[in-house]
Design a protein that fits this description.
This protein has 22 helices and 17 strands. The chain is flat and about 110 Å long. This is PIN domain-containing protein.
């Protein structure tokens, strides 16, 4: 029905008894056709049968399709030799899972595994022993088992891949693999030792399949490290394959604890490329029990454990949650204690600030105050410390700054070292330093597709607002907004915290990605009100006139009507940040 129901198919126009006789050499089918049709009708397999008194021997397949009418019927169709040949040479294609022994949808398959982090069961056993018995069985079912077929032949064209979910269970040193489908689990347990051994090896970096396993080779299963690391990372005893893949971002400080020649104290290692993490080497010869990696801000530990898997001895890398570096019972505790002592007396600012990752912020600032009092040239030394603090991940630096400006016990440190204020600049200081006396609109780089500006209400109420800028966005931070931020942030503690975080995010932007221009009332219409809102609009008009797409992010509905005549769009902070609620509301409107 599915194959011959199209009117463009010549075979659909032949009477059904004629098809059986010409194609399959079966005669007498017209005698049994009425009973077969009635049976199919009862089973619901035929949608409609013509009931105009015509004999069943004249029915065509096309007449049984839904939507056909008696007027479409012909009495004497002619089946050409070419049509007969086409019917005899048609191809029946199916995808078959030899493990589950069932049909697999083509949408679930791919030519090759796409994710190099997945473990791949080799396809060689299937290719060496193709399931031809099942193909032949499916072919007979397709052509009906009671029909004698003379020219049908089975052919295995090729293979594809499917991804299945599985869980690794480790208990008493025994590793087991359990899939959602019991038949898959049973199949994996029945794999030959050679196949299981090759499955233990990680995929190669170039995406090619596993190489042949040599006898006596060491086998390892490695857990993928988090893609977005942020914080302090201590490593020791990592396998070379894992160490080679540690491409840490600048938001990470990587401390290596492996043996290093001629190194007795924490030492900086020059970065091999731009945008890489700051690396510190600090050998700990007296603690050989550490083998793995610890992420301090996530409290996760990577360990290498010896396991037995279906008779094979191997090592598996696993992550486990931990309470912290300095918790009782932690294998890292002694290392942290020794590292903290070494950092406290280091003359390298980047080394001195490392304990900020694990110390209480107040304790860190007190240690800084004690050290600064013993320095002969405190100003120069503190300037280096400020530069080193700026290199810390934003999450660590923000925690330190919140404590510095909130804890009254640290007021003396803030007064003694005003340069610390540069770590957390005011809005006015940030924009005045950026503007440098130039009042005109800055040029927008060609790579930027939008000009974005925030009004005061959004800037002091929405945390991480600036972080939602796209790489193709150019930020305009009007001088009028900077003044309003300084005036209003003192009205509420949350306003102060949120505005400071957004200011730090602006300072992290590339210099050519933002500007802080002054307003010019001459860009406003004479009837437009020259208030603070008017100053913000007047600041943005030159960018709109230059052909840029300008968007003002605001919580004030009055801006919508005022911006429209100048070609400036407006949206709420929720919409700009892509909050689901705002997206649903926009869709409803």
């Amino acid at each position: 029905m599915k194959e011959f129901s199209s009117s463009s198919n010549a075979l659909a126009a032949a009477p059904i008894p004629e098809l059986f006789r010409q194609l399959f050499g079966i005669s007498g089918s017209k005698d049994i056709l009425p009973d077969v049709l009635n049976d199919l009708i009862e089973r619901g397999r035929i949608h409609r049968v013509v009931e105009d008194g015509r004999v069943p021997s004249l029915l065509r397949i096309i007449d049984l399709a839904p939507g056909r009418s008696g007027r479409d019927m012909t009495r004497e169709p002619i089946l050409s030799e070419a049509d007969k040949q086409a019917a005899q040479t048609r191809k029946i294609e199916r995808y078959f899972d030899p493990v589950l022994e069932e049909i697999v949808g083509a949408d679930d398959l791919v030519p090759q595994p796409q994710d190099a982090n997945h473990f791949c069961v080799p396809a060689e056993p299937f290719l060496m022993h193709p399931p031809t018995y099942w193909v032949e069985r499916e072919l007979r079912a397709e052509l009906h088992d009671d029909v004698k077929v003379y020219t049908a032949a089975a052919e295995l064209v090729g293979h594809r891949w499917r991804c299945s979910e599985a869980e690794l269970f480790l208990k008493d040193g025994e590793l087991s693999v359990e899939c959602g489908e019991a038949r898959e689990s049973e199949y994996l347990r029945g794999l030959s030792q050679r196949v299981r051994r090759s499955w233990l090896l990680p995929s190669s970096l170039d995406g090619s399949m596993h190489s042949r396993v040599e006898e006596g080779a060491e086998f390892s299963i490695h857990c993928q490290l988090p893609l977005s690391l942020d914080g302090l990372v201590l490593t020791r005893g990592l396998p070379e394959t894992v160490r080679a893949g540690l491409v840490m971002p600048p938001s990470v400080v990587l401390v290596g604890l492996d043996l290093a020649a001629d190194t007795t104290e924490p030492t900086l290692i020059p970065a091999s490329a731009e945008g890489r993490a700051m690396q510190v080497v600090y050998p700990r010869n007296d603690n050989p029990g550490i083998a793995g990696i610890f992420l301090s801000n996530e409290g996760r530990e990577y360990l290498r454990l010896p396991v037995t898997w279906e008779g094979l001895h191997a090592e598996i890398g696993v992550f486990r949650a931990t309470q912290g570096l300095q918790q009782d019972g932690s294998v890292w505790r002694d290392v942290i204690t020794a590292l903290e002592a070494e950092c406290r007396y280091s003359d390298v600012p980047e080394i001195f600030v490392l304990p900020a990752f694990w110390l209480d912020p107040a304790d860190f600032w007190r240690s800084l105050s004690e050290r600064s009092g013993s320095e002969s040239n405190g100003r120069t030394w503190m300037a280096g410390i400020v530069g080193a603090l700026r290199k810390l991940p934003s999450s660590v630096l923000e925690t330190l700054l919140e404590a510095l400006f909130r804890d009254r016990r640290l007021d003396q440190l803030s007064r003694a070292h005003p340069e610390l204020a540069d770590l957390d600049p005011t809005a006015k200081a940030l924009v005045s330093r950026k503007q440098r006396g130039t009042h005109g609109a800055a040029a927008v780089p060609r790579s930027c597709e939008r000009v974005i500006a925030f009004d005061t209400s959004s800037f002091i109420q929405f945390d991480q607002l600036v972080d939602h800028l796209l790489p193709t966005d150019f930020l305009v931070f009007p001088q009028a907004v900077a003044g309003e931020v300084e005036r209003k942030k003192g009205q509420h503690e949350d306003f102060r915290i949120i505005s400071r975080r957004n200011l730090r995010a602006i300072r992290r932007l590339p210099e050519d990605r933002w500007a802080a221009p002054f307003h010019d009332y001459s860009f406003l219409a004479p009837s437009d009100i020259q208030n603070v809102d008017g100053q913000i609009i007047a600041t943005l008009v030159p960018y709109s006139q230059a052909g840029s797409k300008v968007i003002l992010v605001t919580q004030d509905g009055d801006f919508v009507a005022r911006c429209k005549p100048y070609g400036i769009e407006s949206m709420t902070a929720e919409m700009f940040m892509g909050h689901p609620k705002a997206q649903r509301k926009g869709a409803e409107q």
